[in-house]
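All the exercises in this workshop are built on plain-text protein records. The record below serves as our worked example for the rest of this section.
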Amino acid sequence: MIFNHHKKEGIQLDKTKLKLRPARMDDADVLLEWRNDWTTRRNFRNTAPVERDEHITWLTKVLNGKADIILCIATIDDVPVGTVRGQPEGEYQDLSYTIAPEHRGKGLSIPMVLKFVQEYLPGKKVLCEIKKGNIPSEKVAQALGLHAETEHQNNSNDEPPLVVWK
């Protein structure tokens, strides 16, 4: 077993201890902070910041099972390091994830998303819509065994097109 230790703000991370748990209402603030981080927004379909009231309404629907979304928090030694979700899109589950800004660049994306698919979506077909040129997310899709299939324009002509990986 290979251990990958990383130090950031006094926290030592060991990727082999990565765990997923269902999101809770007490995660609302950190989820909103991660969602509104500029790097996160730059890579989302919708780059506009989300207002707190809108976020709380959305999270309440998700947690009450009214949005048909699986939302998990990734932790290492109980430290939240990211989030991943699956949302039905036809016969597929559309995957989306975010790594906490302070934990980016530590190789957490692929293990987090693979673990999510294995634990929460076994046997399901998955897809990812990724902005063209988002190399880290393209590597996650490749690790899932997905291939770039179609490309379509994003919400704004200023944004790179979205590529659907299946």
Q: What stands out?
A: The radius of gyration is 16 Å. Helices lie at 28-36, 38-43, 52-63, 109-120, 135-143. DSSP finds five helices and nine strands in the chain.
